[in-house]
Amino acid sequence: MMISASRLSLVARSQVRNLLPTAVICLLCALAATYLMRIGVSFTENLVFSLCIGVVATLFIDGSRLLLWGKEKPHRGGFLLMLALAAPLSVMLGNLLATYALRRPVTLWTLVQGNNIIAVIVLTLLACVSATLFYWNREKLATLQARNSAIEKQALQAQLQMLQAQIEPHMLFNTLATLQTLISHEPLRAQQMLDQLIHYLRATLSTSREAQTTLDKEFELIQAYLGLMSLRMGLRLTYALHLPDELRRLPIAPMLLQPLVENAIRHGLEPKIDGGDCTVRVTKHLDMLVISVFDSGRGLRTEAAYNKPASSHLGLENIRARLAALYGPLAELTLTHNIPSGAVAQITIPMKALRQH
Predict the structure, then answer these.
(1) 147-154: which pairs have CB atoms within 8 A and are 24 or more residues apart?
(2) Which residue of 123, 173, 281, 321 has the fewest C-beta atoms within 10 A of its own C-beta?
(3) What is the pTM of this model?
(4) Which stretches in the chain have pLDDT values below 50?
């Protein structure tokens, strides 16, 4: 039977991961042999024998299981037969290695251990069964975690699509209503708004089809959106975007900034009679990426908490959930008051998590 390179690599990785658990099991076996079964001369000697037997047994049993069945559940009959053969063989080879390690002749090992060979084999068999169950359950848990991670990513993608469905109708209907008014009275401005709307929709469509984008592309989308809003609101809206050149190609999940900017317009600036300013700034502070959206609008409600879990603002909980799932517990979204008026929405993400994503 041909053994694939992937199976051999799986065995090698498994043996490295098994070193510490195997050492703990061998330590317990040495304690049992010395103080419960009264085998051997001393604890140190039993520990050497136990480590040698344990390493050989792990290689034989867990290695053979992975070579024959991979990560699948092993065949019960075949696995029991392998255990029955591997246990005595592990004792023989492990004792031989321990004898050489202790610099003793083989005949001495035979005289000292011969009367207890059955007990040693039984102890080894029990240890092998326990270790195999441990290793197999550990791999099953890792497989389940990987599966749950994949499901979670699919759920996040569904949330992103729902978020986009939330964002687009509100903005589109308002923009189309404004266009309808402008066509008869200000056709030139209506044409400009239509061109900007097309530009925005193209940018949104491009971003929505990607699992990951860059800060540069996110800022293109924001530029298109704010350009469209400035045509709608006129002199009531001014805006500025600040993205350092060295951060432009930094990868980031799509649609993290768009909801924050829309919230600044929808909840802060649009309801305010004289409008105001919206500024989006990206900086790097120590090992954290900091993305801030400032507005000089109506500000947060007095009862709003800085990091309140339940918020009426569009998509904030979606953003918090995606940040935690994608970049870990250190990634967060906070809302604070802007001085003298308005609000600040700020995303912080560890740079290490961005590079690993």
Answers:
(1) 152/325, 153/325
(2) 173
(3) 0.55
(4) 1, 108-115, 304-306, 309-312, 314
